[in-house]
Amino acid sequence: MENLLELSNIHTFIGQFHILEGVSLSVPKGSIIALLGRNGAGKTTTLKSILGLTPPRQGSVLFKGEPIQGRRSFDIAAKGIGFVPEHRAIFRDLSVLENLRIAERQKGDFERKEQFIFELFPDLKRLIKLPGTNLSGGQQQMLAVARALVPDNELLLIDEPSEGLAPVIIEQMMAAIQQLSAQSTVLLVEQNFVVASKLAQQYVIIEEGQSVKHGRMADLVQDKATIHRYLGAA
Amino acid sequence: MDVLGTLKANRTRFITLGVLAFLFFTAVQGMPTEDWVITILRGLSVGMITFLVAAGLSLILGLMDVLNLAHGEMFMVGAYVGWTVFVRPDTFVDVLSPLLLTVVGFVLLPVWRVWIQKVPFLLKQAKFWPWLALVLGAGLLWIAYARFPLAIWNPDVYSESPITYSLALSQGNLLLATVPPSAGWPLGLLGTLLGGSLLGLAIAGFGLRQQAGTMSNHISRGTWITTAVLLVLGLVTFFINSNITDFLLGISTTARFFVAMAVATGLGFVIGGLIEVALIRPLYDRPIYQLMITLGLSFIVIEVVRAIWGRPEFTMPKAALFDGSGDGCPATSFGDLIAHQCSTILLFDGRIRTYNEVFIILVGLVVLALVWLILQRTRIGMIIRAGVQDSEMVEALGINVRQVFTFVFAMGVALATLGGVLAAPSIGLSTDMGTRLLLLALIALAIGGLTSFPGAAAGAILVGLLQQFIIKYGQIGINLPFLAEPFKPSPPLVPASTVLLMVIILLILPHGLFGRNE
Ligand SMILES: Nc1ncnc2c1ncn2[C@@H]1O[C@H](COP(=O)(O)OP(=O)(O)OP(=O)(O)O)[C@@H](O)[C@H]1O
Ligand SMILES: [Mg+2]
Predict the structure, then answer these.
(1) Which positions of chain A have pLDDT values less than 70?
(2) ipTM exceeding cut-off 0.90 for this assembly
(3) Is A124 in the pocket of ligand 1 (CB under 6 A)?
(4) Do A73 and B395 make contact, defined as CB atoms within 8 angstroms?
(5) What is the dihedral sign for C-alpha B273, B445, B305, B257?
(6) How near does any CA of chain B get to the CA of A1, in Å?
(7) Phi, psi at residue A149, to the nearest 5°?
(8) Closest Cβ opposite residue B401 in set A74, A94, A134
(9) CA nearest A136 in B: which residue?
(10) B316-339 confidence digits (pLDDT tens)
């Protein structure tokens, strides 16, 4: 199978700090792949390095076979990568509709995706005129995912979608991610191992800025020792 | 959220606004009708001018976290350039061609960047040659501009000073001699083109170190189109130089004033864009340096203005539309006002000056509405509002935020230069006008909530009103209980009062009237 995204041995610095010290991973087309690791392991930084928000100093990032490291973030994103950041980053002064429209890369993107988006998140339809600042945490998370769906993104980078959400909402979010993965490949950062293991087919574990283990999720679920060692969970 | 919830969450804000409104009505109550009408109009007028400066300042600060300390000086440049177009159109037209050709060198920046990367020698010696290019370019420009027979004035000789020309125009006996073309000019033109290009190259070279590895090889079509347009315009204005001058001298002063407004605004847009690309952009990682550079720029601009227009203050005559005093004046209705082009209008027995207290406010309101519409209704406005909160996320959506930065900087400076021409006929031209206005605008911003656009407008108007009410009360006095004589606020109290208002408001609302607690 062809890899949609491939990181080889990337090193990223934030200021003086050497945060990523060799992360390699491949994301095959048409799957959900979970990026796991403890707090502070470097998961978010990996996603930001792919997008060039914290540009890697060494190593290569291939998207659809083309090197994208060193390019400006907008350029990378415009190649078809959607980003759902850790703390949602909903634009407070923009209405829900504007939060979606701003993600358009071509005129009419939103109209094309409208139906699909509202099928996934029916709540958003009713909130469409509300300013972003008035949304609840769960609604913001839905909007953040929906925003990444507006343009034709082949790859979605989703950072901790279940963080701080009530169990019912998590269920809803999981169903949505499952459904959208039929159209886009997903690189998912998820602390909640139950959520991650249900959604992803593959995993990569990061530990102190290095990718240390990867494989099929089905195998990891059996491997209590690895889970305990790297994720600290049962 | 329900209305009650909103009220509760913003309790302090509503109470503060209530107190301000109360103070305002008390101040109005203490004056005869004609006095408060004129005071409010004057306050609004000062407020609108302040707003034009504050608006750009706040957009630039909000979107790119740059406090442009040269913003006041841009206001000043607008005034001086506007004066030149209005009083000395011959000079303006003379300068136009070399200026357009110089700008070409900067517009070609992306081309220089790509070109440098193709020449190994330039890449290797990047520490050395940009300096050489800078010195050579500046020298070449100096020589080229000196070769040009620019029609200028001489601030050191009274009979040839801006003061005299202003006076001549207002008395209707302005005589300008057009200089015949001579053989040396084409060389001068070429010099400006080359000099500008060398400066552009130098900037591209200095940028090399910061942007190593992340430079794009992309030259947009816009670059080529702009270059072509500037070249053609530069040459055309050169060859029909005297025709344009004659045309500008032939039209009514009213029309020429509108031309002056358009030129100053357009020039502000270009200058703003150039400042962002050349000085601000390489330093986004180093905000303190950005601050220093804008501060340095403001000093340089002041000195340049002093060198060209001289130190003494002078006035800018009002256009005919606002200067009539013959039959039917002062006007008693707006119909009369326009029909007789009166300089004043009677309103509640008070004499209102058409230009200062009507026209400035109208233009201010139009600009306010336009900018508001751009921010709320257009895609770029949406991107600006989003970028004020989180420009990184905007970029992550695939939007070239840097381009939007340049646009906003350009637009912000354009608003300031527009403010400058607009203010010139009312407050006159002086080399400290920019600094004074910058202070006022900063106070207005702090009151309104640094990065909020409605806040900038509200803060500016508040500051204007407060100033004018205190000035008025300085003339008529306030009857205070237990005091035999009316209390008259002295003039130094005027600037102090705005600072005081700022301090009080910030103590109550640390984020200003419309700012948001982050
Ligand atoms: N701006 C910064 N300056 C310095 N260090 C940083 C910065 N941002 C992140 N780090 C450090 O980089 C490391 C990796 O951070 P990152 O956010 O990628 O972790 P993470 O795996 O996403 O953690 P979490 O699960 O808590 O979100 C952490 O040790 C963090 O302290
Ligand atoms: Mg994280």
Answers:
(1) 1, 233-234
(2) yes
(3) no
(4) yes
(5) positive
(6) 28
(7) -90, -10
(8) A74
(9) B1
(10) 998 888 887 777 778 777 777 888
